[in-house]
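FORM 7B - TANDEM STRUCTURE REPORT

SECTION 1: FIRST PROTEIN
SEQUENCE AND TOKENS:
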Amino acid sequence: MRGKSVGQVPDKITMQTQNKKNGFQTCIFDFDGVIVDSEPLHAMAKQNTLDNFQIKYPSTLFAEFKGRTDRDFFEYVSQELAEGKATFEEMDTYKRQVYLKLFESVPLMQGIQDFVSFARKRFNKLGLATSATARDFSLAAQRYPLQTWFDVIITGSDTVRHKPDPEPYLRAMSMLSVTGYETLVIEDSPNGIKSAKAANCTVVAITTSFKAGELRQAGADMIVTSFSEIEQQLRAS
């Protein structure tokens, strides 16, 4: 499979479990685009912010920074696009205010509740590792019982380096007392995939935010369009 060109990449591949003596012991989830359908809200809030400060930007900008931190985004904008119209702090503050209003109606990803119920029985422990801030996670946790779903929660506020660096997953695995070979990760972005693969995890990528070819190119071991597909693969393994 790995020898094929991107144009020949299949939409999904068989779950690989070899070299994992006892199989997967832990499943670690990303947050934006995996647990909550918040990626469109982040993009909308960022676009609203740049429009508010009359900053011109290419149409591809938001997709290029999907899965990366707000700090990365606004540092780039302030250095390359703002032309003195707004500081990093001004843009970041404005975006948070817009996002807070939009987030009041953020939905869970379709099928996630049923999959978490299955995963609680299938794995010894569940974790969450995200580059989102603790504040953003807490907003969702006030709306949904996310704290009860996971044994370990790592947010961007808990790490020095963020995805695509492996630190978020390495820290989560350390707290869960597992290795990468025992860990299955569910991601939706190339940066998240690179982070998990650098931590030696097996990665299932779900096509909620990016196309299958982009996720496969980033190194995903399996690509699915729904959580029910992941459950079917796990039941069959």
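SECTION 2: SECOND PROTEIN
SEQUENCE AND TOKENS:
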Amino acid sequence: MKKDATALKFATSAEVLEAPALELRIGVPRYPSWERAAKRGIDIAFSLAVMILGAPAFAVLALLVKLTSPGPVFFRQVRLGHNAQPFTFFKFRTMQHKNDDSVHRSFCETFIQGSAEAEEERRVFKMVKDPRVTRIGRFLRRTSLDELPQFYNVLRGDMSLVGPRPPISYEIEHYQEWHKDRLKIRPGLTGLWQVSGRSQVPFDEMVRLDLHYITSWSLALDLKIMWRTLPVMIKGDGAY
């Protein structure tokens, strides 16, 4: 598998991205209690700060969503978190209301199985030309501003600031067993995948990055990933 130079700055061992799947299986992650408490404390403090200081921006974005297409401001969806526990996931709505998800279901299946046919989307875990996305939705996705309501998920404890992205239930129907190991910790708003190419990283490589994050986790790694997230958001690389 082709090595990603940015990813390897964090996942410093190239073998992580090339090892056979059986060698990547992990047990129950065990982290020092003080580091887990510190991680949760950072999650709460940062989320509260963003939600309070960013309230005017939240209001403007909500108004733009409401005025540019009919439907609710927020998109709610059941995602799977730590140990595949379901929770309600929030985003600013970027698609037409009450759209058909069959196209996305089919795309997820072909991509996860590594058999997506469209060359433009062959290495992308999001549909590049999704007809359901609104005009303002394209901007929100490109800048990742649609993710801002997830700070509420972080505050509630459904998610963390850093961790694997939470899948939709129909995605894991197509997971191999080793893919499921990425659900062994709380999902995150950002992660090693996002700062290593985001949607341009193939699915298996994304999972390998998640597993490396889980087995190598530290507060220092979280801070590095958070530091790298803002430039990635501004550039919009791999966002659709």
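SECTION 3: OBSERVATIONS ON SECOND PROTEIN
Residues 1-13, 115-125 have pLDDT under 50 and may be disordered.
Residues 34-235 form one domain.

SECTION 4: SIGNATURE
Preparer initials: ____
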